[in-house]
Every structure is written in structure tokens, then in C-alpha cells.
């Protein structure tokens, strides 16, 4: 599994394979059962994650008890809650395993020790963060400016695997529509594809 992590790190550095293997050896990898809550809404996060296998859902429950899904993290994606700007440092979101997950687990409390042990990690992490934040910004901008059918089309193009891996009600919540609307959009999309084939 750590081979996946080494391949990912290789995108952000020119370190040799043995050097990357040495860093990976010091990194904690854990397996979590489906349904495991990694971070509770309202908690102060002490860990960050990187998905080697499986899927993590980011969501929040509003004052009426309704769940709202904000993101899905799949293989080779980092999972971090950015809350340093808030005074109490509590998370506005929860993170849970939508499938059985194999995750790299980073301890935010001992992060500095890891960076001191491997100084090159700081530059690598900054590049990873820049890419991740750039993608999040682009996705959010596109989402806000698009109609539900356009959001569905974008999802189908960028992350088609979610259509088969995520329950329909969570997918609908992520797209900002009802499950019924999602069913109608999927049906229209399938009919349009059949016309193209004909």
C-alpha cells in the first residue's frame, strides 16, 4: 500500500526512490472499518489523512438534524479540515469512512517532529497543499456557477466512480439537489447518451 503513497509523493519531489521509501517507513498507515467516524463535527481535529484505499465523506448536520455532504475523498487524495482561522479550532464538519479504508494517518500534534526528521517534507507538503487548495477552489467556483444538470455532468466527467460507490441520497446532497431530482437528471443523461449512440 505504501507504494501508492510513494508514487504520489514522487509527483511533488525529485527525491530518489530509496529516500522516499525512508520517509514512507516513518508514516503511519491504518485500516478503518466502513462507517468509522474519523472526526466528529464540533471536535478539534488532531489528525489529517491520505486515502490509499477506500472513500471518506465530509459532511455536516444542520440545526434541524439534516445532513449535508460537502465532499468525497478517494484514492490518492488528502483529507484535511482547514480550521486554523476559527478561534476555537473546532471542526464545522465530520469525516467518516464510506467504505473500508486504508489511510495514512498524520498526527497534527507531532507534525513538527516529522518535519524535523525529514526537512524535505515541508516543501513537498506545501506543493501538495497548493494543488489540493487549487482544485477545491476551482470545484467550488464551478459548483456555485452551474445548474444541477451541469454539476452532474461535471461529476460524471471528473469522478465517474462516485456514481457507483456513493449512496444516491448522499450524492444528491453533494450536488445540492433532492434524490428525486438526481434520478430525473440521471434518466435524462442516459436517454441523451442513447440518442448519441443511435
Question: What do you see in this structure?
Answer:
With 198 residues, the protein is of the alpha+beta class. It folds into 2 domains: 2-139, Jelly Rolls, CATH 2.60.120.10; 146-198. It has 8 helices and 8 strands, in the order ααββββββββαααααα. It has helices at residues 2-10, 17-25, 111-117, 120-145, 148-158, 162-165, 168-175, 179-197; strands at residues 28-32, 37-39, 47-53, 56-61, 67-73, 78-79, 94-97, 101-107. Strands 1-8-3-6 form a 4-stranded antiparallel β-sheet, with helices on one face. A hairpin with a 5-residue loop joins strand 4 (56-61) and strand 5 (67-73). It starts with a helix and ends with a helix. The model has no long low-confidence stretch (mean pLDDT 83). Keywords: Activator. InterPro entries: cNMP-bd_dom, cNMP-bd_dom_sf, RmlC-like_jellyroll.
Counted by DSSP, the helix tally is: 8
* Oligomer class: single chain
Question: Taking strands numbered 1, 2, ... along the chain, how are they ordered across the largest sheet?
Answer: 1-8-3-6
Summed up, the domain count is 2
Please write the CATH class name of the largest domain: Mainly Beta
Main sheet? 4 strands, antiparallel
What overall geometry do the principal axes of the alpha carbons give? globular
Q: Mean pLDDT, as a whole number? A: 83
At CATH level 2, the architecture of the largest domain is Sandwich
Report the CATH superfamily of the largest domain.
Jelly Rolls
**First-to-last CA distance:** 43 Å
Give the helix/strand class: alpha+beta
Strand tally: 8
Overall radius of gyration:
19 Å
- SSE string: HHEEEEEEEEHHHHHH
CATH fold descriptor of the largest domain: Jelly Rolls
| DSSP helix fraction | 40-55%
Portion in beta strands: 15-25%
Low-confidence sequence ranges: none
Keywords: Activator
InterPro entries: cNMP-bd_dom (IPR000595), cNMP-bd_dom_sf (IPR018490), RmlC-like_jellyroll (IPR014710)
Domain Cyclic nucleotide-binding: 11-57
Protein name: Crp/Fnr family transcriptional regulator
